[in-house]
Amino acid sequence: MRLPDFSPSLTQQTDSAGRQVAPSRSRVLWLSCVAHAMHDGYTDMIYALLPVWQADFGLDFAALAILRGIYAGTMATLQLPAGRLAQWLGSRATLALGTLLAALGYAVAGMSGGLLGLCVALAISGSGSSTQHPIASGAVSRTYGRNARGPLSIYNFSGDVGKSALPAAISLLVTMMPWRHALWMVSALGCVIAVVIALFFPSIPRAAPVDVEAPDHRRSTAGSGFSLLFAIGVLDTAVRMGLLTFLPFLLKAKGVSLPMVGTALALVFIGGAAGKFACGWLGARMGVIGTVLVTEGGTAACIVAVMFLPLALTMALLPLLGVMLNGTSSVLYGTVPEMAAPERTERAFALFYTGTIASGAISPVIYGFLGDRIGVHGATFATALTALAIFPLALALRPHLAVEERR
């Protein structure tokens, strides 16, 4: 699908017959991608800052876990309120304010003098980041309508760009200046992006444009269809986070050194970023169900292969493992709009992201307890079984999708 050119208008446009058409699509997509990269970068930047804060404030590992949990917890729990806020203020204002709040949270962190100040700062930043996923993904979905799967894959890929860029940037900056000054620099960048969003993000109507109106089947099947999609998203996230918990231990058992573990994980993440980008477009051509079955089946096969293959073949397989691990998510995110009426898109995305974020936080703990009971190999094999458990859910989802998807 070819992306349309930028349009100079910032508001809803009309054609020669006076009918409403979609706002400037490319501008919605690319500004949503910028917001996604910034917010996801802020989210993962904490990992690079934890050692700095531990050394500066003398924090123990429990305190560091609290800091990470506060950011993730506020971001997850406020997704639904953020969707409701967008219905009142509009997507542009909510996304701009959320980006500004996320940036100011890190500015406050740069002024903090201890654990309490950091907790408050990260709660502020996490609250701001809660707006991005439901608002930006909902805006892309409503703008592109039934053709949103491909653009949503680009949107999801942009988050991985931010996760790679900002932690690397802050790690470099703290070697060149005090960490507080480094935080103020990345906070200033977020403030600039918030202003850009406020000025240039197109106003998007609550109802879908006439040419992308939701089909009747969406209204009749949204409840049960969304529940199945939600369950698939939760299990898919659990597989990904559970495997990443055990992968370093599997590699160490094969004789991989600690620096090489980092390289191996980088290979998985590179493949994951490619998977998010490619599988969204693949889903638009191959169908949601077919793509999910391929990626989840491939995930299970790659997990088993990583457990038993020799080291050289395992390292070669890791990028493909990343593609399979992350590929499903783009297809699922692109299907969320089919399960909701256009005016409830933000709420649907908020629910979906809340479930996947919560799964990402809880599933490593569950698999960790399982690993203590049956060992690393047994728990890793359980992640492969979880991937296969998605098969019947995906097949049950098929009747709830569009007619074109079922053919």
Automatic annotation (TrEMBL):
Ranges annotated as spanning the membrane: 94-124, 182-204, 225-250, 256-275, 287-309, 315-336, 348-370, 376-397
Pfam families associated with the record: MFS_1 (PF07690)
Limits of the Major facilitator superfamily (MFS) profile domain: 28-407
InterPro entries listed in its UniProt record: MFS (IPR011701), MFS_dom (IPR020846), MFS_trans_sf (IPR036259)
Annotated GO MF terms: transmembrane transporter activity
Any one cellular-component term (Gene Ontology): plasma membrane
Recorded superkingdom: Bacteria
Keywords noted in UniProt: Membrane, Transmembrane, Transmembrane helix
Protein known as: Predicted arabinose efflux permease, MFS family
Top-level taxonomy: Bacteria, Pseudomonadati, Pseudomonadota, Betaproteobacteria, Burkholderiales
